[in-house]
Amino acid sequence: xxxxxxxxxxxxxxxxxxxxxxxxxxxxxxxxxxxxxxxxxxxxxxxxxxxxxxxxxxxxxxxxxxxxxxxxxxxxxxxxxxxxxxxxxxxxxxxxxxxxxxxxxxxxxxxxxxxxxxxxxxxxxxxxxxxxxxxxxxxxxxxxxxxxxxxxxxxxxxxxxxxxxxxxxxxxxxxxxxxxxxxxxxxxxxxxxxxxxxxxxxxxxxxxxxxxxxxxxxxxxxxxxxxxxxxxxxxxxxxxxxxxxxxxxxxxxxxxxxxxxxxxxxxxxxxxxxxxxxxxxxxxxxxx
Length: 288
Description:
With about 290 residues, the protein is α/β, with parallel strands linked by helices. About 40% of the residues lie in helices and about 20% in strands. The chain has two domains: about 45-170 and about 215-285, Alpha/Beta hydrolase fold, catalytic domain (Rossmann fold, 3-Layer(aba) Sandwich), CATH 3.40.50; about 175-210, no CATH class. Helix 6 links the parallel strand 5 (about 145-150) and strand 6 (about 165-170).
């Protein structure tokens, strides 16, 4: 009898441990706030704006020559911050684009929140768009959105809810919740195929919503603007297969694909074909 109870107890305790792990995995990573790097000649403005009772931080980077070609809202990924997205300004601002990089709640300089999800990322994206609409010299310019990783998934959700962008760039985003749980479990050295369902169940119980309904491969079907879907084929965080799933889900929509050979998750900016592809897409979609 004992030889049966011991394995059963081990399995039970493991399931409980994974459940507890999943329960607390929605708490944002408390990374140190990064200093603002040197930027090309531009006007840099620190911005604060409200979102769901929180105060968010953002950096507005405008080219010296005004008006700009358009405004690109930059949305970072999980555990990241606006400072990480300012690298995009290095090549966008000199070409005449205004960039608005925001810290989603629980990240960077924005107010802390105990539980942060893709839905709250999307809510903060809407809040950033609302702030831009109150500035006359910005609201008169075409608005674009560039979301990276979880920020890309949140951008698709916000767009499916009517975010007023002219076009969007979705960078290194996942298509399925399964890809997120796999990454979370791999970091904890746990097999995703065995324990993924526990993480999904945990998040569903804690948030009291069906997260599967908000998966990017579902929300992308409700996006009515042009998209650039881009991904590195050596991405260790979000598997390259997720791009293929987004492409499959986007059939019938106005979209382009930008593959970046040899690129990982956070080094897309190191590749000229990525920078050139983003600029080309923005230029094309900013034309009347």
